[in-house]
Amino acid sequence: MKILQIIITIITVIIFLQSCTETVSPPDSMRLDLVITVIDTSAFTQTLTDSTLVDSAQVFVNSLSYGHYFFKLTDTLGQAVFHQVLPDVYSISVTKRLSAAEVEQVVGSPNERALNGQLQGLEVSGVVFDTVVYVTPVALGELLISEIYYNGSPADPIPYYFHDQFLELYNNSQSTIYLDSLIIADVSYGHTDEDVIHAIHAYMFPGSGSDYPLEPGEFAVVAQDAIDHSSVNLSSIDLSGADFEYYVKDKGDVDIQEVPNMIMLNHKYGIDFLYSVFNDALVILRVDDPYEYGYDNFDELLLPKSAILDGVDYRDNLIELDHKRLDIIIDAGLTGGFDAYSRKSVERRIDFFREGLPVLMDNNNSSIDFQVLNSPTPGYLSAADSLP
Ligand SMILES: [Ca+2]
Ligand SMILES: [Ca+2]
Ligand SMILES: [Ca+2]
Ligand SMILES: [Ca+2]
Questions:
Q1: Which residue has the higher pLDDT, 122 or 111?
Q2: pLDDT reported for residue 306
Q3: Closest Cα partner for 223 from 242, 195, 201, 250?
Q4: Which ligand is nearest to the CA of 95?
Q5: Residue 170 CA: which ligand is closest?
Q6: What DSSP state is assigned to residue 323?
Q7: C-alpha to C-alpha distance for 72 and 289, rounded to whole angstroms
Q8: How many other C-beta atoms lie within 10 A of the C-beta of residue 149?
Q9: Range in 7-16, 32-41, 146-155, 192-201 the model is least confident about
Q10: Residues, CB within 5 angstroms of ligand 4 (ion)
Q11: Higher pLDDT, 98 or 185
Q12: How far apart are CA 353 and CA 360, in angstroms?
């Protein structure tokens, strides 16, 4: 098992490195310098450094057409310069982790925060292109979607096998989080409401408040069906160790007695809470009353955006940023970018380690925060992790 995991890890690294070096080669004369200045207009940086220029911020630059990622830290002038980039449409994401001591110095109590900022759809051209990214302080994500395996497995022998889908959650904080009454929902495409999402499916964790603790650094796996799927389709995965499963009554769904069922809040269609194998968005949220906002005219449950704790938008075609389902404040990017039924998965990268536990990356931009795995990792992290 261990050797297999190491082999998978090596293959994942090789494929990741290949995808980094894959280039279309337009003439060098088109290349330009992209100069990004990071400014914090809140009190944080001013109080700490007597300046609004943010040094040591991580700047991630993503060229949409070429799929290139670049990463740099800002200097003492708050600048990161990317030399010789190609003219294209770029998304830029900036994050700087503030230590508890730094936060205490500003707000009086120790709390981990980050300064985050983003620019989307920036058309970069010319000889030298200057731009400014403004950052604001945000609290770090505490409970996160750490992996979504939505892809389905290759026919072996069952074609179009997607019953092995799962969602993995991770406690990214330093204290116990209770999963009780947490909601997982998908987000219907094409709605422009400011305040609510339209959920085709919404399921809630059981428990009365303190039944399902998730300790710091722990995972919870929510399976569509908590069985060993490789006994049905050989290329599939074993989810018999899943922590929860969706259960849809009267539709012939599997119900493993030892594995608690998620509570159905809305189920518009399907034999299970199926995630699209092509494109979808999933969110986790908490509300007192899931029916407070009612339904739309298409039997989709309305849920408040303000209650969303984390969200991930995925698509097989990453260029289709204009087809995103989530607001950029929830997820400014897209993850995925592979064909259906290839048994790939998307998982959050490790940002840093805190007292030996991985702290996962949460820039609210899945283009940056997530990586593609060649094999799902239910209940653990892929070791093939690194900054882009
Ligand atoms: Ca099920
Ligand atoms: Ca069950
Ligand atoms: Ca997030
Ligand atoms: Ca995992």
A1: 122
A2: 95
A3: 242
A4: 3
A5: 4
A6: G
A7: 44
A8: 28
A9: 7-16
A10: 147, 168, 347, 377
A11: 185
A12: 9
